[in-house]
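Lecture 7 notes: from sequence to structure.
We start with the chain below.
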Amino acid sequence: MQLAHTLRAGSVGMALVLSPLVSGAQEVADLRSAAELAVELKALKQELAEQRRLLHALQVELAAQRRAGDAVLATERGTGPQQVAAPAQAQAQAQAQAQAQTAPAREAVGQAPQRDGRPPEVAPIFEAPGVLTAKGKYVLEPSLQFGYSSSNRVALVGYTIIPALLIGLIDVREVKRNTLTGTLAGRYGLSNRTEAEIRIPYVYRSDSTVSRELFTGTAVERVFDTSGKALGDIELALRHQLNDGGMDKPYYIAGLRFKTRTGRDPFEVVTDCTRRCVGENASGTGLPLDLPTGSGFYSIQPNLTWLFPSDPAIFFGSISYLHNFKRNNLSRRVLAGEFEPLGEVKPGGVIGFNFGMGLALNERASLSLGYDHASMGRTKQNGVVVPGSVRTQLGTLLMGFSYRLNDKRTLNVAVGAGLTRDTPDVTLSFRLPMNF
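Predicted structure tokens for the same chain:
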């Protein structure tokens, strides 16, 4: 009994001694578990934040690659007035822009990607390009254009007694005209939305006129050949992009073109007339002995161009109005050093519009189709419409082909077929824009 009591008392005392030690060990284990959980939770939070940053960077990079892909696709499928940069250059710029947008996004979460806002380029089947030159860049574009036209002219001078009998003179003429124009154009980007352009043409023309005057005692055909070559009318232009477009959103570009009269105008060349070229005392063919290379009038032309990307094609077009300024106290030179006074001459205005569509054939080549139309008003002399002057309609069907030679140069070829009587039968042009 005594021993049992002693043992019980010892065990109780030992329990009292060990109890605080066990509780302390448990508390230490709990604290250690909580610290480990805190460390693990902090690591998980850091990993989650890193995953979020990586996810955002991937989203930004994916969006940039999509924009770059759209830009390259639009470049390869371009058709126009238009094209100032090669497709490879547009792709390189798009990739560089994508990398520039992606790198800052990985450092600063939530930064919005930047958009270029420039329209896709189109192959140049029309005069005005659709894509503007980037700021600080310039484009040098040599071009060569050939045009051929053939027309018949029947002039009746007299009066009719009965429908089958004509008393008077019948003048039948067939005119064949060849025109070769070499042009050097330069464009400079004043900003990402504005560019300036200058065009310097050199013109060579040759005409062959076959005529036969009936009821004059002879039926012999006469051939009248004439030609002319000189500097043409220099042109200055300014274009500005009005809005930010995009896929399935149109781009609008406003332009203003000024044409000088640096070329040899029609009033400077000698006309084959011995007296007056019109009226009862008219004599001679009335044709110029040396062909002019300019229009002879200052002109200004505002225009508006639009481009509408719609995968897989790009639609484009423009409207314009050409205003010719009148000239006073005009006279033209005739044979024997004489001059025929003309007074005030005012050419009619020209209303123009065109439209087209472009498609990509592969990574380097693209094809474009378009139609160009111009309506020329009647010419007035001394405030009165010139006899025989009528409104003239000029319609041309155009097909263009573009091939990228390298990152800086692209070869563009365009063929035009005249659809109206007064339009040249065929036009063929070559362009080689070089980017710097």
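Points to note: The mean pLDDT is 78. The first strand starts at residue 138 and ends at 162.
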